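[09:14] KT: can someone run the structure on this one? pasting the chain below
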Amino acid sequence: MAKINGSNAHWLDESVLPPLITAAEQLAVDEALLNQAEIGDLTNPVVRTWQATAPAVVLGSSSQLCQEVNRDVCAKLDIPVLRRPSGGATVILGPGCVMWSVITPFKDKPSLDAIHASMLEPLAAELSKAGKSVVREGTSDLVISTAEGVKKISGNALRVRRHSVLYHGTLLDSFPLGLVGQLLQHPPREPQYRMKRQHEEFLANLSIGRKQIDNAVQTAFSAWNTRTTWPSDDVKTLVESRYGQFSWTERL
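[09:31] RB: done, structure tokens below
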């Protein structure tokens, strides 16, 4: 796997993106960078964070829309439903939920366990320095301990291709957790530590602020070089052919 925790990772400067970029376009940015990594046009890992300007529901690549989303409520509240290119369950984005992404090329395909560990363990360590102790739980969650028990602050997913990987996820910081139960059904599968808790009882906010989160992500992957370009043409094509299409979102 390409060196992540080293000096070759690049931080994608958010200021180079249009100020009103949509959640669908943000998902397309991740895949466009992954495509570049796959064909060899991206030789250094790219690390970035972003935040949706309004709530949105995002299905996993194989998520069943009717099983995981309360579609009537989403329609009533005019909340868009999108689908990402990676696996995992459905999530809610919006102000107060910081998204993080790492896109990296590799020569020798690593195991899934190695990818999860290389991404989540350094991030958990850096987030812990900024606030409460954060640890990995289940396959790809990050959690904190509270008086009410262990609660999830981050759910993550990946897409592995022949020569590249996209790893991205959520970091709840000041998100209205009650909204999750309104928009999502109870997941069809859950980690053991959830113990069948409802969304609002299972989730928690970090409450450390966007700046602290950005610093933790950047430090975790030593992304000290700055990237000031983004594949805008590829993003436009992906939105027009996939992320902006009902046929993509509602295919399952």
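[09:33] KT: thanks! The chain has a mean pLDDT of 95.
[09:34] RB: yep, looked fine to me
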